[in-house]
Structure prediction request, 81 residues.
Amino acid sequence: MNGIGALDQRPTGPRLLLVRYLPGLVGETARLVHVCPAPRTAESIPEVLTAYCSERFEREDVELLEGMSGMPCTWCLLRSP
Ligand SMILES: [Zn+2]
Prediction:
């Protein structure tokens, strides 16, 4: 579970963002931590993020996490590089 942060230090490839729905938008059991690739060149966070599990998120609906915490999305973990 600690691998994501290390992966993000790679000089190439997409930046990996850890996102989770903000509290209150969904039930606590649906607040999985998803991994979304973002262009490394982008200045800011894209308005719509697509996770490796194909789930799409509006930027305003999610919080960005510094590290993996809580319950990770299994599909995102399996599919992320
Ligand atoms: Zn996911």
In short: The chain has a mean pLDDT of 85. Residues 3-79 form one domain. The chain has one domain: 3-79.
